[in-house]
UniProtKB/TrEMBL annotation:
Keyword Transferase: yes
Entry EC no(s): 2.5.1.48
GO annotation, biological process: transsulfuration
Source lineage: Eukaryota, Fungi, Fungi incertae sedis, Zoopagomycota, Kickxellomycotina
Pfam families listed in its UniProt record: Cys_Met_Meta_PP
One term of GO molecular function: pyridoxal phosphate binding
Native source organism of the sequence: Coemansia spiralis
Cofactor annotation: pyridoxal 5'-phosphate
Keywords: Pyridoxal phosphate, Transferase
PANTHER family tied to this protein: CYSTATHIONINE GAMMA-SYNTHASE-RELATED, PTHR42699
Protein name as it appears in the record: Cystathionine gamma-synthase
């Protein structure tokens, strides 16, 4: 088992591009939210949508040195469209979020601008030695939004909510090219993902509204898949880590894997899954750079179809609600996700239908994060059909190894960063369209019009590598998590265990796959009889990795509400998301060691006096 990792270190320790960071005590999490230097100054990594990775920070400074004016901040994106949406978001949100400042004036359009930064070796010998540089017909370009420093928090909000920022691996590659350019008169070394540093010699200005280089659309991205022997099992064909030259093929394999279209060779290895939707192909799967990117792009596609309000059914992961509220005309929030919320949902749908202003979509998580509630998808499907509304379901927590939500939904979104990858070292997301729903053709058209293949080649390679044994890992995690949940539930020190077997269990049973390996997933949340004091004692004594994220191959815990809702604790508590809640993602450790670890943490909670 992983022991506790020192404060601020990567989780797991020494993992390049780790997507979690160690916050080993309850107070560490509180101080992180308060911005305490003792925590922030020790952080070498963090969850990538909240913590701008060190390579990206270095690249931003490089671009600012070349282009920025005094008192300007910068944020980098992988495409012009992403950068322009960031600027649009700032102009939309600045008046709303700063309305309390009577003297505030929205900056003139020219004060927010986009520059294009091109990473191109000046020495062509470097390109010949560079396995990644040889993948592309033209140099790598990133797009930097330059803006007044006081507007940077809004740019950071856009980065966090949408997951549209650049990959740390892409930033490292740009820094590598800059370093090679500085060393062009010396012997050129091939690119290594561990390379760092340098400054750039090649740069090209780009202004918003000018001619934009063409982006890779969905059909163009798929054209690279022809000719690849997709039925060859990856590990046998390429070894543990594939060459980045095969990134397009890796994306094809990922899309087939998510669609359930596994090769015969993969099935021989025991990796069997059936999505249960007739006519589904890998062409119905879209890969994006992050899990929140999947929610964001699904929402953008729906906005492109109708531009109307949505409904968020149930208490979701924090940024899902922020996307629905801040992008477009807004959303209704039914945060309990059970009981009378179904009746209220029907009233909302009927009222809007009668006023000729129909709701565009219902968004739900199955199960939800962190309360592990499962919506009644049959009832939501009935309402969606009756009022011609799209149903979007996030399956991240359940995963398609355990639950079938695609049979009910128009769109399924998922964070591939989580259990699909498991190794906590790469970000990714997916969008799957159900070809048997009435919104399918309009959604396909909307996705084709705006979708860009922005997953960086190295990220695709690692995501493919990590997910090869996904279907084997999930049953082990299911068994471990169920045993831990039952141990906690039996303790007199525990007030409540939220886990799909115990929480809205009938709804989960309807979507749970019928295979013998299907289970309740690896995530659970727990609250204690002694309130926050007991939660602190339990969390501080738990001898596992502790930090943000979930779905890792190792057990990972966090005081979820403190990290996700620190500035809105009273609001979250109204929906049952209490400040003393501890969320635990169970991993692959030996079960006897896991149970002993959790029992020791329970024993550390002081017994209340009689």
């Amino acid at each position: 088992m992983y022991s506790q990792v020192p404060l601020g270190e990567c989780v797991p320790v020494s993992t390049p591009y780790a997507v979690s960071v160690s916050l080993p005590t309850w107070q560490d999490n509180v101080d992180y939210e308060l911005g305490a230097p003792r925590v922030l100054e020790r952080m070498v990594s963090g969850y990538p949508r909240f913590f701008i990775a060190k390579p990206i920070q270095a690249l931003v400074e490089l671009v600012k040195d070349r282009f920025a004016l005094p008192n300007e901040a910068a944020m980098v994106f992988p495409s012009p469209a992403c950068a322009e949406r960031c600027i649009a978001f700032i102009y939309d949100q600045a008046p709303k979020q700063r309305s309390a400042e009577p003297t505030y004036e929205l900056p003139a359009r020219g004060q927010l601008r986009i520059v294009q930064y091109v990473a191109e070796p000046v020495d062509k010998r470097a390109a010949a030695l560079d396995t990644i540089g040889g993948l592309f017909e033209s140099p790598i370009a990133i797009y930097c939004v330059l803006l007044p420093e006081d507007l940077f928090p809004l740019a950071k909000q856009y980065w966090q909510h949408t997951g549209s920022g650049i990959s740390a691996r892409l930033a490292d590659y740009c820094l590598h090219i800059a370093r090679v350019n500085e060393e062009c008169e010396r012997e050129v070394r091939p690119y290594s993902p561990a390379s760092r540093g340098g400054s750039a010699r090649r740069k090209i200005g780009y202004q918003a509204g000018s001619s934009i280089p063409p982006v890779q659309k969905a059909d163009e991205a798929r054209s690279h898949e022809t000719g690849f022997e997709a039925d060859a099992y990856m590990e046998e064909r390429f070894g543990r880590n594939c060459d980045p030259r095969h990134a397009a093929e890796m994306k094809a394999v990922l899309r087939r894997r998510i669609a359930g279209a596994l090769s015969a060779e993969e099935q021989k290895q025991g990796a069997q899954v059936e999505r249960g939707v007739a006519g589904l192909t890998s062409d119905d799967v879209y890969l994006v750079s992050t899990g929140m990117g999947a929610v964001y792009y699904a929402h953008l596609a729906l906005l492109g179809m109708s531009g109307r309000k949505s409904v968020c059914f149930g208490f979701p992961y924090t940024d899902t609600l922020k996307i629905l509220e801040k992008f477009g005309p807004g959303a209704y929030f039914l945060g309990q996700g059970e009981g009378s919320d179904y009746d209220e949902l029907e009233r909302i749908l009927e009222r809007h239908a009668e006023s000729q202003d129909p709701i565009q979509a219902i968004f739900a998580e199955c199960p939800s994060n962190p309360l592990l509630k499962t919506a009644d998808l049959s009832r939501l499907r009935d309402l969606a059909d009756r009022y011609a509304v799209a149903l979007v379901v996030d399956e991240t927590i359940g995963s398609f190894a355990n639950v079938d939500v695609l049979s009910w939904a128009d769109v399924v979104v998922s964070s591939l960063t989580k259990v699909f990858s498991g190794d906590s070292n790469v970000m990714g997301g997916s969008i799957v369209l159900n070809p048997n729903r009435p919104h399918y053709q309009p959604l396909r058209a909307a996705m084709s019009a705006m979708f860009e293949d922005l997953m960086w080649c190295e990220d695709a390679v690692f995501l493919e590598r990590n997910s090869r044994d996904f279907m084997k890992r999930v049953p082990r995690i299911n068994r471990n998590a169920l045993a831990v949940a039952e141990l906690l539930k039996a303790s007199t020190k525990v007030a409540q265990v939220r886990y799909p077997k115990f929480t809205t269990a009938e709804n989960y049973a309807r979507i749970m796959r019928s295979t013998s390996e299907a289970g309740y997933g690896g995530l659970l949340s727990v609250e204690f009889v002694g309130g926050e004091g007991a939660s602190r004692a339990f969390y501080d004594s738990l001898a596992c990795c502790k930090g943000p994220s979930l779905g890792t191959n190792f057990t990972l815990a966090s005081p979820y509400t403190i990290l996700a809702h620190f500035t809105e604790l009273e609001w979250a508590a109204k929906y049952g998301v209490h400040a003393d809640l501890v969320r635990v993602s169970i991993g692959l450790e030996p079960l006897d060691e896991l149970l002993a670890m959790f029992q020791a943490a329970l024993d550390a909670i002081p017994t209340a006096p009689r």
